[in-house]
User: Fold this.
Amino acid sequence: MIDLRSDTVTKPSEKMRKAMYEAEVGDDVYGDDPTVNKLEKIAAKILGKEAALFVTSGTQGNQIAGLVHCKPGQEVIMEAQAHLFLYEAAALSVFAGVQIKTLAGERGAMKPSDVEAAIRGNDIHEPETGLICIENTHNKAGGAVIPPGNMENIYQIAKRYGIPVHLDGARLFNASVATQIPVKEFAKYTDSVQFCLSKGLGAPVGSIIAGSSDFIFKARKWRKRLGGGLRQVGVLAAPGIIALEEENVNLLEIDHENAKQLAEGLLNIKGIVIENKVETNIILINITNSNKTMEIFLHQLKEHGILAGTFGPNNIRFVTNNSITKKDIDKVLLASRKILNY
Ligand code: TLP
Assistant:
């Protein structure tokens, strides 16, 4: 199958599997797992933060950040299409006891002036703003890169009001590879960062959260409370080290090239409208004007050995990832053309 449903579908390479097999391990709740400790050190350094923590998933990382930064009754500002708002089952409200204030963004980027206008807390009727979240790349905006300049402006406002900023950087390395700007330059304008090892970077499990030593101290405790304190977890951290230290980061460039090639081909198929500027590894299409419904199109793609998924009521999403070759892209274009009778 050519699997374009997500970059979460990537499977660990031989090298990763070997590293898992050979990983030195210990009880990580005691801080005794040398492989986890190494991964956390590497990640903190890459992000330019004091400390980092290996967590089970992007969702868990985002939730822990919310729990560390916020108090119940506060409000968290984020873009209206943020993963934290749309796809984390209201976890911030459930666990951290906060409500979410969404702001419509442009290609996933919130206007700094809108963020400032949304900050609340001086009135007895209002919740205080406890946190501002930014997502980079922005998934629902089609893998859009939020420019560091936008992040800097929001961060400066946040600092003026004493509000922390969290970055949902599930695909932060895609933003970095697409712009040739080091991840540190994005992370600079945040108090905490979450990025996923298990998406385009190709590791089977896990995310990293990073921030100050104090943030990570508190995050470790929240991870334990949530049942996320793992034991000989070096077997899962080992492929994360390969993802960061070996070829995987640069390989994202191939995913981006494949996405561009796919987008260019899809553009010429009657009935398909590409809804995003393809900067990284995500393509969102709209086929409302074709002769097929999304369901039928996806079903027929599947019959051609191709998997993709819906993303909201009007979009189909293709996510290139390290299992996809240039030949696969040609097959997807051929099948799409056939299905839509072009
Ligand atoms: N995104 C998944 C789905 O949940 C939609 C995907 O296939 O794209 N932040 C962002 C920006 C994400 O895209 C995701 C996963 C997460 C957080 C959550 O990561 P996990 O799946 O590891 O909990």
About this structure: The radius of gyration is 20 Å.
